[in-house]
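Readers of this paper often ask what the protein records in our data store actually look like. Nothing more is needed to write down the fold, since each code stands for a local backbone conformation. Below, we set out a record of this kind in full and without editing:
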Amino acid sequence: MASSSLALLSSFRGPELCKTKSLISHSKHPSDVSFSFQCRKSRIPPILCSVSVSDPQVLTGRPDDLVASILSKVTETDRGVSLTKEQQEEVTRVAQELQKYCVAEPVRCPLIFGEWDVVYCSNPTSPGGGYRSAFGRLVFRTKEMIQAVEAPDTVKNKVSFSALGFLDGEVSLKGRLKALDDSWIQVIFEAPQLKVGSLEFQYGGESEVKLKITYIDEKIRLGKGSRGSLFVFQRRK
């Protein structure tokens, strides 16, 4: 769990959401379309994140179609464990297509704040460490894998499980976040906290991870770990 790559960062001061507004430029190239995201509250300066695309059909929901597609491929797969290699490649292809519509500075988009379910990882042991290894999954049945991102720079990860089918427990991590550039973040996690039944204790030491945000909207967030693992996060309702 100490090697978990569930991390995000923003320099915002509060959990204001981005509001999407489409802007169509009447230029010599009518197919050029740009999106802008602005913060609602006036107590912080408006942050503008934009991306240009060449396909005007995006306005009718192309990114939404891709989001629906990737979620349909990873739902009910034990976060990707039950997918074949070919199915994982399909998930990767959709993620690469979605990346084309990512805002310019995803680490500064306030949509990152909130609670997220980890619904997919191309490497099963990245989110959860040994608890998600082939042997670990035999002993620990994962119930929930949640990441909470809190302003201005805190992330809390929690994996809840059932040990041997009857003993409930959870592993939690708390980290402090730092933006490395417009897409990459770094997080320093404190030692993991393990709770099993009435027992609760801390073990191990600090850990450091890096993650690139490749796409974010109101429903999902995509991330790529420093070792190439693909993550799909779905916002909790």
Observations:
- The radius of gyration is 19 Å.
- The CA atoms of residues 169 and 195 lie 5 Å apart.
